[in-house]
Amino acid sequence: MKIALLSEKYTPDIGGLAISTERFARLLSSAGHMVRVIAPTSNLPPSEKRILTNNEVSVTRFGAHKRVDDTLVDWFELIVEEHHRNSFDVLHAYFLTQAGFVATYAGKYLNVPSVISIRGNDIERAAFDPAKFSHVMYALQNASAITTNTSELVNKAKAFFDREIILIPNAIDTEHFKQMPRNEELAKVIGLIEEGKKKEERLSAVGFAGELREKKGLKVLLSAYAQVNKKLPSALLIVGEVRAGEDKQFVDEFLVSNPDSRIIITGFVSPTDLPAYYCLMDVFVHASLRDGMPNALLEAMACEKPVIATPIGGMLDVVKDGENGIFVPVNDGDALANAINEILNNPELQSRLGKAARQSIINCFSQQKELAGNLDVYRKLGLNP
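Above: the chain's sequence. Below: its structure in C-alpha cell form.
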C-alpha cells in the first residue's frame, strides 16, 4: 500500500508533531508499506523541493511561502503530481488545519480516501482563528475518516461536527525509552554535579523535556522550583529549549531574582540520547495549561520516572492519580511544589510510581497498538493494508 503522509512538521523540525509524524511514518514503513511524507519547511526557498530518505521513508520537503494560501496550493499540486506518477492508496494528514484541509481536498479531487489525525493545537486553537475555521470544518465534514489521540479531543471534534472520531493514542518505543544506569559523566558535563563534590552530594533534579513556554506551565514550574530549592538544593533540568522572546526573558529575570537557582537548559537533544537525560531526573514535571498527549510525558514514564502532571488533555488518559503519577491543579505553584517535595523526599514513592508508570506505557501505549489502530482504519475504508 502506498501512503501519502502530510504534516506541517517533520524531523529535524522541533516539537511533538514532528516527532509523532516521524514515528508513525517509520511504523508504517516497518509494516511493509510505501510511505511518502510531504511537508513544508522554512529552510528552503518558496516552491523549491527536496526529496530525502529518512529511516527508509521517502520525504519531500518544499519551501513554504509567506502567504499560507500559496503554500497550500503548492502542497495540493505536489500531491496531485506524485499521485499521477505513482498513485496513492490513501492520503493521511497528521494535523487538522492545513495538512487536513489539503489531504481532504486532494482526496476528493483524486478520488482517494483521506484520513485526518487531530493532534491537539489544531482544534483547540484553530477553532478560534477565523482564517482557519473554514479549513477545519471542511476537513471534519469531508475526510473519509478522522482519528485523534485523546478522549478529550474526541469530544471537542464532535462538538464541531458529529461523526465518528476514532481514538488512537500516541505510542512509545519502550525498548528505547527505558530505565538505565545514571550517566555520572553526563551529569557532570551539564552541571548536576559540581566540581569537587562527591556523587552522593549531587543535586536533585526536577525535569522537563521539550520547548518550555507559557502554555507548558513555564511560570508555575519556576514558582514551584523556587519553593523546592529553598528546602532542598536542587536543579531544574530543561531538556530542550525555552521559547525565545517573552518566555526566555521571564527565565532570565527569574534567575536574577533567584541567584541560588540552578537552571540547566541543554538545548536540542537527539531522540537517540533522550533516555540518558530522563534517567538523570528524580521527578518529571509536565504542568501544562493546555495540551494534547505530550510525547515527553510518555517517554519519561517509559523511563520509570515518577511524573507530576496537570489533569488536562491526553494526560487524563495516561496518568492515574496516586497510582502511576500525581496530578496537581492547573496553575497552582504551591500544590506543584508540595508534590515535588513529597516525591524528592520519598525514595519508595519514587520507585513505586516509576515502575507503575512504565507498566502503564507498556500495557496501553505500545507502538504495536498505534500501528494496529491505524491499519484498522484503512481496512474500514476498503483498503487492504
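DSSP finds 15 helices and 14 strands in the chain.
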